Amino acid sequence: MLLRFRVANHRSVRDEQTLSFIAAPRRGEPGRTKPLSVAGIYGANASGKSNVLDALRWMSDAVSWSHTQWEPTAGIPRQPYKFSKPGLEAPSFFEIDFLLDDVRYSYGFEVDDEAVLGEWLNSFPHGRVRKLFERTSPTDVSFGRGLGGELQRIWRLTRPNSLYLSCAASNNHPLLSAIFNVLGGHTLFARHGERDEKLRLSITSVLLHGNAAPELNELLRIADLGIEQAEIVETTSSSKIVLRRPGQPVLLDLEEESAGTRAWLSLLGYALFALRTGGVLVADEIDSSLHPLLSSTLIRMFKDADINEEGAQLVFASHDTTLLGSLLNDEILARDEVWFTEKEESGATNLYSLAEFHTRRDENIERGYLQGRYGAMPYLNFENVRQIFLERRR
Predict the structure, then answer these.
(1) Averaged pLDDT for residues 13-40
(2) Which phi and psi angles does 165 have, rounded to 5°?
(3) Do 209 and 217 contact (CB within 8 A), yes or no?
């Protein structure tokens, strides 16, 4: 499970920002030690919500692909803050704390346009830090006594522009492969676009072929989309998902259905995969094409201990303020599960938590946000809009 993510100098995230999954203490309640299963990010358009999520994606991709897919002489395909020369020249920083087999680990790295400048992995088996490896330059590394295996052989295979963790996983190092899976293979990213939707639907197709099909179809039926069942139809060259409506003998291609139906079905595949593996689902604009009851249902699936037995987590960005309120008299998001992004005049993104505000237990969070009480709201004066049209008539 993720505990904390830190990033600096990625897209609009200029200064170091932290997204925490550690539960905040609540007045009059005992402290909660289990990491949060949900984090939702709100903010104005272009405030950096997607860039925070993209930083997590970029880190995951670097772990997954830097050794096998990055060109050996092409440097680092990073995306630094572009609105100042220091941002272009400064290194980009990524670090994540997580739990694996009930042991806390901290892994991170710094990169510039050419190479990995630093990379480190520490564990905390008894609350004390234990160094597993530390890379202090593109060509220098040291190892702790707690990390076994063919460390030097793997180091000789590690290029200056690839991560040691990525190389170690490609060479089947037991512990580093397990950490690689946490940060890479078990983290799924749901983004916009037809290509990404097809990728998500490929996971749904796999689940429909297996023992998850009844569960997935039941979730499809109860969404009140008028769909009885999703099925896989094999063709001569490929397979595709088709949908069956109640009492109708004709099967419909998924492409004939609404954007909301496709979004729900494609997100269900990722969600069920994460829930079964204890992975992380990162969804940008989770409310896109979905009714608030569906997006809130997805959030509740991750928050329900009986459903989420493996400790899966959901990180999302949204404009849907109903998720901040008490939909159907139930709290959807607790205050430590709500985050905001706000952009400075310079264009840099600040990330902060609702838990930093002293909210009353009965405070209407949705109303307070829309009233600008917590910031992270666009400023738009409708009188200025009227003036544009009035001046054209003069």
Answers:
(1) 85
(2) -60, -40
(3) no
Q: How far is CA 278 from CA 4, 5, 99, 181, in A?
A: 16, 18, 11, 11
The DSSP-derived string for 120-184 is: EEEEETTSS-EEEEEEEETTEEEE-TT--SSHHHHHHH--TTS-HHHHHHHTT-HHHHHHHIIII
Give the pair of three-digit tokens for residue 294: 């569906």
Q: 284: exposed, middle or buried (C-beta count within 10 Å: 0-12, 13-18, 19+)?
A: buried
CATH class of the domain comprising 1-186+304-383: alpha beta
- Angstrom distance (rounded) from CA 83 to CA 98: 32
Question: For 315-366, what is each residue's pLDDT tens digit?
Answer: 999 999 999 987 655 789 999 999 999 999 999 999 999 999 988 777 888 8
Q: What is the pTM of this model?
A: 0.92
**What is the enclosing helix (H) or strand (E) of 201?**
helix 194-209
Q: How many C-alpha atoms does 346 have within 13 Å on its Cβ side?
A: 14
Cα–Cα distance measured from residue 56 to residue 54, given in angstroms and rounded to the nearest whole number: 5
How many residues belong to the chain? 394
Among all chains, which residue has been given the structure tokens 């989309």?
225
Domain spans of the chain, in order of start: 1-186+304-383, 191-277
Residue 43 exposure: Cα atoms within 13 Å on the Cβ side: 27
With contact defined as beta carbons under 8 Å apart, do 317 and 286 qualify?
A: yes
Judged by DSSP in three states, 10 sits in strand
Q: Give phi and psi for 183, each to the nearest 5.
A: -90, -20
Element (H, E) at 40: strand 38-43
Closest C-alpha to 243, from 234, 210, 215, 233: 233
